[in-house]
Amino acid sequence: MGDSSDDENLGTDWLPYSEREDWADVTPLPQDDGPNPVVSIAYSPKFREVFDFMRAIIAKGEKSQRALDLTTEALRLNPANYTVWQYRRDILRELDANLQDELDYLDEVIGQNAKNYQVWHHRRVIVEMMNCAQWELELTQNALNNDGNAKNYHAWQHRQWAIRTFNLYDEELEFVNRLICEDQRNNSAWNQRFFVVKHFGFTPEVIERELTYAMNRIRIIKNNESAWNYLVGVLRQSENGQLNSNPEVVQFSEGLYAAGNRSPYLLAFLIDLYQEQALQSRSAGGNTSDNNQFAEKVYTLCDDMSTKHDVIRRKYWKYVAEHLKTQLSKPAETEQS
C-alpha cells in the first residue's frame, strides 16, 4: 500500500502496534508481493508495521477513533497514499467527526506537502462536506507564498475551484495583480487573471483595459512570453477575434519592432498578425500588392526566426512560411479558412 519508508516524524520512542495492548485484537496483514517479487521494496520496520495494521483495519472495515489515528500515522509516512486518504474520509463520515479539526490537520499537512495531489483532493472533499470555503483563499495564498511555490499547480487548481464553486471572485484581480508585480513572468498568475476577467465578461471596455494592462507589462519586460500570450488571448475575445482588431496593439507591436526589439514573442505575434492580414485582404478581394506586402513580412520574419531568434524551432517557422504560400496560391473561392 505504501511507497515510502520515511519515518522521521514518528520519533525514536515510537511503540510498535504489535506491542500495544489496545491493538491486541488486530492481526496485522502483511503486503502480498507474490512468491517471486521482481523488485522488493526495502520498507523500514516502522513503515511495514503501520501499513500491515492499516491493511488489517481496512480488511475488517473498522471505522473508529483508533483507526482514524492510524491513518494519521500512515499518512505521515506516505502522504500520497490514495487508499488511506479515502478510508480516512470514510471514517470521518462514520464518526460524524469535527471537520474543522480536519481542516486544521490539513493546514499542517499541506504546509509540508504543498505539491501533493492527494492532500489537496482530500481538502476539497472536506470543504465540500462542510459547504464552506471560508479559509481556502488564505490557505492557497500561503501555499503560493511559501518556499518559492508561486506556480504550484495544485494550489492554483484548488483556488480556482473554490472561487468558482463559492463565487469568491471579487478581490481576486487585486491578488493576481500583486503576484504579477512581484514576478511578471508568473504564467500561473496571468492565467488566473484571464480566468477571473472571463468570469466577469470581456466587454469592449474590459478588453481595452486588459490590452493596456498587458502592453504596459510588455513595456517593462519585452521578452515576457506570459504577457504576450495574455495579449493574444484578450485580442481573441474581441467581436471578430482577429489580432488586428485593436489598432493601438498593432501600432505598439510594430513600434517595438521598428525600435530594434527582436523578442521571439514579438516576432511570433507579428507573424500571426501579418498572416491574418494577408489572408483577410485576399478573401476580401483586396489589392494584390497589399497581399504581397503582408506575405513578404511573414516570410522575412519566419526566416529571421528560423536562422537567428528561434533556431530550435526552425522547421516550424519554415513550415509556417510555406503554408502561407500554399494558402495564397489557391484560387480565392477554394481557399480554406
Short summary:
Helices cover 65% and strands 0% of the residues. The chain is built from 15 helices and no strands.
Describe this structure in words.
This protein has 15 helices and no strands. It has 337 residues and is an all-alpha fold.
The outline comes out as: elongated
Instruction: Summarize the amount of helix as a percent range.
Output: 55-70%
What quaternary form is this?
Answer: single chain
> Which H/E pattern describes the elements?
HHHHHHHHHHHHHHH
Rounded to an integer in angstroms, the radius of gyration calculated over CA atoms is: 29 Å
Main sheet characteristics: none
What features would you highlight for this structure?
disordered N terminus; 15 helices; 337 residues; mainly alpha
List the helices and strands and how they pair.
Blueprint (H helix, E strand, L loop, with lengths): L44 H16 L4 H13 L4 H14 L3 H14 L4 H14 L5 H10 L7 H14 L5 H11 L4 H14 L3 H17 L4 H11 L11 H12 L5 H20 L4 H22 L4 H16 L8
